[in-house]
Design goal:
50s Ribosomal Protein L19e, Chain O, domain 1; Non-ribosomal Peptide Synthetase Peptidyl Carrier Protein, Chain A; two-stranded antiparallel ribbon; 7 helices; rod-shaped
């Protein structure tokens, strides 16, 4: 029972690999007689079955992503590339400045600092005087003590 030519023709007709073409053992006689593409199309679904494509499972990827959301798998052993390959210098700067400006705005709303002092600090933030939000707070505590 050599049905290799029928399988090859079926794979070309249905645009599937030979492995995905399955022939119903009960209807082999009909498949043997089929010699044209038209004959094979008539037999699709009954004598000739085209299996679905197998995709790549995302289960493992989803599991890892879930762990990363929790903060796992992000240690120094998982980091690849240069220092600024994960977040650029510019993006780090933007984040830092936004945080500091937000703090200044809150302090101004609460009237903890004057308008003039706010402008002075704002310019200092823009100039890169403060390393972080904590540094800005430290500067403010030292200034208010004096």
């Amino acid at each position: 029972m050599n049905l290799s030519s029928q399988k090859k023709l079926a794979s070309k007709t249905f645009k599937a690999g030979k492995k995905r073409i399955k022939i119903n053992p009960e209807k082999i006689d009909k498949v043997k007689e089929a010699i044209t593409r038209f004959d094979l199309r008539k037999l699709k679904g009954t004598a000739i079955i085209v299996e679905k494509k197998k995709g790549i499972s995302r289960v493992r990827a989803k599991k890892i992503q879930e762990q990363k959301k929790k903060g796992r798998k992000k240690g120094p052993g998982k980091k690849k590339g240069a220092k600024y390959s994960r977040i650029s210098k510019k993006q780090l700067w933007i984040n830092k400045v936004r945080i500091q400006r937000k703090l200044l705005k809150e302090l101004q709303k609460k009237e903890k600092i004057s308008k003039e002092f706010y402008r002075k600090l704002y310019r200092m933030v823009s100039g890169g005087f403060f390393r972080s939000k904590a540094h800005l707070k430290l500067y403010l505590t030292n200034k208010t003590e004096k």
